[in-house]
Amino acid sequence: MSPVHDQSYRRYTGTRRPSGQAWWVILRTGIRALIARKVFIALIVAAWLPFLVRSVQIYLVATYPDAGRVLPVDMRLFQRFIEFQALPAFFITVYAGSGLIASDRRARALQVYLSKPLMRTEYIAGKLGVLVFYLILTVVVPSLLLVLMQVILSGSFSFMRANPTVVPAVFVASMLRVFVPAFVMVGLSALSTSTRFVAILYAGLLFFSEAIYNVLAFVTGSTRVAWVSLGANFDVVSDAIFQQPPRYETPVIVSVLVLGALVAVAVSVLERHVRGVEIVS
Predict the structure, then answer these.
(1) What are the b/e assignments for 133-168, b being 16+ CB within 10 Å?
(2) pTM to 2 decimals?
(3) Which residue has the higher pLDDT, 116 or 23?
(4) What is the CA radius of gyration of the chain?
(5) Distance CA 132, CA 75 (A)
(6) Strands (E) located in the chain
(7) Does residue 14 belong to any structural domain of this protein?
(8) Is 7 contained in some domain?
(9) pLDDT tens digits, residue range 159-211?
(10) Is residue 99 part of a domain?
(11) Nearest-5° Cα angle at 168, 183 to 121
């Protein structure tokens, strides 16, 4: 016969951790899970190739000043770099973000997560942080490093003195392209149990809104309706941040409100769908 052990109540003798730190565990686990995938590593490496190209451009202009007539190094260069990084950021957002919550819903793991001493805000913060981390690595870090490369390769701070707003402009514009897509994607991920469907929803939001804008612009003969396009809203705000001539007639405040509304809707979706009891759609 096997021995019968005492099953009476015993005090917990383990280490008690302060509350509010569980999000860090989710964040760390999510980051490690993605970086272990070869396809995802390839996406990250590919996302840094434009940085190398622009660094070569800055080197050529610094070495051969006449090259600046063809390949100018100005505020517009950094704006274009951030806008181009939106492409690799799109693929990383789809690959890393579509399954953040959808996978847990499919596995009915939300009940397990939220039955622990884990607040809903901690769970969302951990999941959101995974995508924010990799988007910062894709957009913000190379953008700021490109400014640093300009200083190093030119050997002076003349560009910085001539353009004192370049660093804050690069930081704000790149962070905007991190947090808005991250919130939107995580919000969409909470709507479904299918990662593929979430990816299609996100791509549809981008491309369908752009198609609608093109139709409306053709019919009205004006770019004032650019606010219906998610990508155009980023461009409108970016032009204002970098103090460039506006490419669209849409007021900046309208685009800011549209982007803010998208984040607000995503937060509302997360509040409604991230619950301990599985919601059957």
Answers:
(1) bbbbbbbbebbeebbebbeebbeeeebeeebeebee
(2) 0.88
(3) 23
(4) 23
(5) 25
(6) none
(7) no
(8) no
(9) 999 999 999 999 999 999 999 999 999 999 999 989 999 999 999 999 999 99
(10) yes
(11) 25
